[in-house]
Amino acid sequence: MKKIVLSLALIGMIQSIGAQPLPVSLTHNIIIDTDCGMDDFRAISILLSRPEVKIKAILATDGSLPPSVGAEKVSSLLKAFGREDIQVAAGKTLKEINPSWRQFNSEVKWSGPASGRQLKTDAAAFLASLLKSQSEKTVVVCLGPMTTLADALRKDASLKGKIEKIIWYSPANPFSGFNYEIDKTSAGEIAASRIRIDAISNLKDGQALFDSSLYALCERRNTKLADVLFDVFSQPVCLSRLNQGHFRLDDDLVSVYLTNPELFGINVLADRLNIRYNTVYDITGIRSAISDMITGRYFAERNVVFNAFPVDHQMFDYDIRPIIDSAIARFGHDEWKANVMTDEFHGHLGVFSIVGAKMGIRAREIFGVGPDMLDVTTFAGTKPPYSCLNDGIQVSTGATLGMGTIHLSADTIMNPSAIFRYKDKAVKLTLKKEYLDKVEADINEGIVKYGLMDDGYWKLIRKNALKYWLDWDRNTIFDVEFLNKK
Q1: Are 277 and 267 in contact (CB under 8 A)?
Q2: Which of 26, 47, 345, 383 is deepest in the core (most CB within 10 A)?
Q3: The 87-90 sheet, strands edge to edge
Q4: What does 179-209 look like in DSSP terms, one character per residue?
Q5: Series of mean pLDDT values for 10-residue runs along the chain (486 residues)
Q6: For residues 380 and 436, what is the distance between their CA atoms, to the nearest angstrom?
Q7: What distance lies between CA 18 and its chain's CA centroid?
Q8: DSSP assignment of 3-20, as one string?
């Protein structure tokens, strides 16, 4: 009896806090704070290579290099990546900080000459101003001391409400092993602010190196990331150290944690619940992720089981194969996966199910979110053909009957339309009349020619669905109406 009561209590608790899993963001909005060591160079390069990571600014904090020198190197790196739209600011010089490895870092060129543009000074004031201007919370990625961030919070404590979390490379045990007392003081102040901190560290794993095997992948120059890494590590001053195993994967781990958190084991400090820290990581998975990013085989899509959703032509029916490459090139992997999964789930390749898949992906793009983050009300009813829209919406958004996040409107008039809600925002998407008229004309043509029970009807529906899949752009086929959430 006690077990039954406990189970019911757990069910009630889950329902009260929401049945959805932890949300997976479609994009990451970040500000990078770096002390410009070589591991920072690799970490920033990885993040610059990821289209799903939106970098708002990069701050150079005193550490491995003086801030003014570090800011110039960051500026040259942005020029190499063609990302001079990203703002750069230099922090203040601290007399307490002057590590022995500065000489080496100063000798390394970060991919070409500096851009020559005017760089911002007073990084703390710039950070404060930037955070205030953001409409949504930002992730601060700290690849060095948190002195600049601490200065900004001293200027305005309310800024902590603008920070989603801090991802920080730290010693194996958070808040111990600092090189300088000023580092410890700054980190302690930020921890006390109760901002969430995810602390990542290299637990001195002998395999956790940027080594000759990764360098060999860069040498192929298949991607911009490979090109930039090769240019820097082929410098004699770097190459000799690389061959001696001097380059640990330190701050590199932070960039991989941002894109692939499932590869890290995270604990919570018992006395500081806002702090998560790394206890173990999958070095094989991390090296594979970095290798795939270098070679261009990395896929940003967040799947449950697949690393990348299948696109091998031999796996698909013969009439699907001709559209695979064109559909992915036009509309991306997310829509490709949604349409394939919808058709398998729906039981046949249908027109309105395809429209529903495109509608769900469009809604996620509008809000900039991944799956399982939207609540949906559809106006498609429970009778085909309009109700087929619901299956496409469920698959593409993750709003399902099982999750309790998709609902049928009580309206008696059905149409291919749905309202998507995220936090305090809502948008209504409706298939435009000219496209609806086209679908209905095609359906009527099939009924007149074959009747609903003839396989000729379903062949025609499949043929038309393939055509709409490839030709209809989700950015143009829907009327979009922004609503106040009710």
Answers
A1: yes
A2: 47
A3: 120-121, 87-90, 53-60, 28-34, 138-142, 163-169, 197-200, 272-281, 264-269
A4: SSHHHHHHHHHHHHTT--EEEE-----TT-B
A5: 44 37 62 94 95 92 92 93 92 83 89 70 92 91 93 93 92 68 86 91 78 94 93 92 89 92 84 84 90 86 72 86 91 91 89 96 90 94 92 95 92 93 94 94 85 78 92 96 76
A6: 13
A7: 23
A8: HHHHHHHHHHHHHHH-S-
